[in-house]
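@channel sequence for tomorrow's demo:
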Amino acid sequence: MKHTPGPWEYDPGDKNSDPVVVGSDCHEIAFIYKYRQDKSVTETNARLIAAAPELLEALELSEQAIQAAHRQTDAEWRKHDTIEEQCEKIITNFRKKRDAAINKARTG
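structure tokens (generated this afternoon):
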């Protein structure tokens, strides 16, 4: 899958322009029309769209963490601290990316 690389940012526009989501290359990703929506709904939609690359990355990291966990049994985890440390790093990185993506989607 190919998409415009992140990060994407929300630009609220002004009285003469609608809000827009722009990519890291400053090109428009999505125009957010205000038709029949109050400002808070418009901004929430735009923030969610802008967080899409980070949300995708967090989901991809979660898959890595799940695969790593499935490859190991409980006994192997106790025997090999390095495997546990490696999985812990993956999980910690996932949680960091997940939390940042959720925060961006919620607050911009």
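heads up for whoever presents: The two ends are 25 Å apart (CA to CA).
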